[in-house]
Fold these 2 entries.
Entry 1:
Amino acid sequence: NAGVMQNPRHLVRRRGQEARLRCSPMKGHSHVYWYRQLPEEGLKFMVYLQKENIIDESGMPKERFSAEFPKEGPSILRIQQVVRGDSAAYFCASSPRAGVGETQYFGPGTRLLVL
Amino acid sequence: SQQGEEDPQALSIQEGENATMNCSYKTSINNLQWYRQNSGRGLVHLILIRSNEREKHSGRLRVTLDTSKKSSSLLITASRAADTASYFCATDARPGGSYIPTFGRGTSLIVHP
């Protein structure tokens, strides 16, 4: 059973370009979470999705950021018109169920660098 | 604001020594989890302790929880160089109404061989 997959592992973009980060959850997991981590800091929750639904996007910036988890295929975190402040590691996690105490399984992350 | 905050921010010890990390949080929780992150990697779940538990063990790991003080500690006994990593506590705060682990800034542990 493959773990959570994220690609690309590293992404370099110039200011104003778009960044697309992909996450394939573990097999059988229908809950996906996206986090952002700045250097020397913890993970900041961004968005929680189930198949075809956004459950909680309270951590998502109001502009330029969007996320989806289609019926088929990976979850996508999309950042439009990137700025230098978007440079960070973006982690995806998945779980088989929602609820108290469910363990999240993390992917290796995508490191975004905006020049 | 962060729900959990780890202390110390950094810890440097010799192999064989014990390492203790603390986590404080602000609001009531249902459970608290500890995760580990090796440099450049994703987080790995270590242990979960529920609010009605006071202590839990897993191998060389010992976690305590004091809900009256809103704090938890992670003890790694007989540390090894391979334990070098960042350690995060996560509480089940509900930023938007969902049960989602909320992470602190982490403790960076270095174990010297």
Entry 2:
Amino acid sequence: EVHLAQSGAEVKKPGESLKISCKGSGYSFTSSWIGWVRQMPGKGLEWMGIIYPGDSDTRYSPSFQGQVTISVDQSINTAYLQWSSLKASDSAIYYCAREGDDNWGYFDYWGQGTLVTVSS
Amino acid sequence: DIQMTQSPSSLSASVGDRVTITCRASQGISNYLAWYQQKPGKVPKLLIYAASTLQSGVPSRFSGSGSGTDFTLTISTLQPEDVATYYCQEYNSAPYNFGQGTKLEIK
């Protein structure tokens, strides 16, 4: 069974760095794109970017390019989303999700979400 | 970027009603369109992909149609458990943007 397990909730101060994780299991991790989706409090879903674990090919939304870094460690079936300097506006739930077996772009499995709170 | 616009933003319907939600793309996306359901406090769930293909395990009262720029999600007979926010997503070209969501409530 496909499962994406995300790291736990984080509370950070503005300016701090952060790296959250998403561990895949139950499928061939290197063969499916993994994406990150932001959901700010009370708001909709925002597509941030995707990475192909097989070769680390990465695509970012222009809205998030330069603001976050998406990476992967094939050896432990884990994808990451990181910030070098957090802002209060980064407070949100972040979901990782897997593209379907055909890698067309829609997400068929989602992680449970990681709540990030940035506050002084 | 391709912009996705859903209508209405919210709606209220009675149990047993037929409900339709519309999604419009700012340019043609063929049938590269998915629909998701997000219940309050829960993780989004894939309902439909390729505009009209029902994801495994999704009740048959959900259906999708459309191609090009205009798409619809239909719930044939609304059930209480369908209370949720529904999102469309294009995956024709990255970034694979979502619509702003349609919040569905029961009257």
